[in-house]
Design goal:
The protein has about 325 residues and is an alpha/beta fold. It is built from 11 helices and 13 strands. The strands form 3 sheets. It has a 7-stranded mixed beta sheet with strand order 6-5-4-7-8-13-10, with helices on both faces. The chain has a 4-stranded antiparallel beta sheet with strand order 1-2-3-9, with no helix packed on it. Strand 7, helix 7 and strand 8 form a beta-alpha-beta unit.
């Protein structure tokens, strides 16, 4: 287990928010605890809050190499079953992105989706007109994406070594909370996004981040039972701390807004089971009886948000 300083301000002074609930039997060498669909709610490292800047993060935790090894080993067949809900979610996410740039992508404009998993958003962005690329550490996820003819690089943003200013848009959907060094990731993103051109009036490249909000009302009401307190989540941003990190990495926050997602009712039932098995059984019976198991519904509890930021002049 490694102790780490605050990734935002570098301080080593913190207070405990939630004690560790991990045991020696919780670790899965196959990376199962790091699947997007893993239901390990309430199983997590010690979670602390920096006394200097308020960033909330897991500390101590597994080494960076061990964490990456888990993500490289991840296989997540249930995610494939949830594809319809993910497509609906990403189509909804696309609308405000297009509204922000005020048009469809121009020919040759490039988008990178970091942590693209099986490439759902890469495909949606490609169909919208971008030259879309993904980068993903899971070999399984990359193989699934390539089956659909998508341009996905296996590895991490750091290992991919994209050229300077090679993208117009970079997206991170439910990714930054998993990173061992989000500040380094944002600085690398800053490097690969196009710079603003004052002479032509062209703004800097756009960064889009979707993550959890630990200062949301739902998170505060749930406390230690907030479902996003999980082993695979290492950072728990608020709008305030994400804004501070973006600014420190050379970005200007444009706006941040709550955004939910679409989930199949059958999948929602499985997410309820860790909290109340009797309720999950009853709802499972009801959805089966009504034929609603495959129905995707929008869910927004206010504890997930999307931030849009521009690369600034250096």
């Amino acid at each position: 287990m490694n102790f780490v300083p605050c990734n935002l301000c570098g301080s080593t002074e913190s207070r405990l928010r939630f004690p560790s609930t991990l045991s020696g039997h919780d670790r899965g060498q196959d990376g199962s605890a790091f699947r997007c669909t893993h239901a390990g709610y309430g199983v997590h490292h010690a979670i602390v809050e920096c006394k200097q800047c308020g960033l909330v993060y897991a500390n101590p935790r597994w080494s960076d190499d061990e964490t990456l090894n888990h993500y490289e080993a991840v296989k997540d067949p249930l995610y494939l079953e949830e594809r319809e809900g993910r497509v609906l979610t990403f189509q909804r996410h696309l609308r405000p992105l297009l509204a922000l740039i005020g048009r469809l992508p121009k020919p040759g404009e490039r988008l990178l989706d970091v942590g693209c998993y099986i490439g759902v958003f890469v495909e949606i962005a490609r169909d919208a007109g971008w030259e879309a690329t993904g980068v993903e550490p899971s070999g399984w996820g990359v193989a699934e994406a390539r089956k659909r003819g998508l341009n996905v690089v296996e590895g991490t943003l750091a290992s991919a070594r994209f050229p300077d200013e090679s993208f117009d848009v970079v997206t991170m959907w439910d990714v930054i909370e998993h990173l061992t060094d989000p500040m380094a990731e944002l600085r690398e993103t800053h490097r690969i996004l196009r710079s603003p051109d004052p002479a032509s009036g062209t703004p800097g490249g756009l960064l889009v981040i979707h993550t959890m909000d630990i200062e949301s009302l739902f998170a505060r009401l749930m406390g230690r039972r907030w479902p996003w307190l999980m082993e695979m989540h290492l950072y728990f941003f608020s709008r305030r701390t994400l804004k501070a990190m973006l600014e420190a990495a050379g970005f200007e926050l444009i706006r941040a807004e709550a955004q939910g997602r679409y989930l199949r009712l059958g999948y929602v039932v499985t997410r309820i089971q860790p909290y109340s098995r009797p309720l999950a059984v009853m709802l499972g019976w009801l959805t089966d009886a009504l034929g609603w198991r495959e129905t995707a519904i929008p869910i927004n509890l206010g504890d997930l948000f999307t931030a849009y930021a521009r690369k600034k002049d250096e």
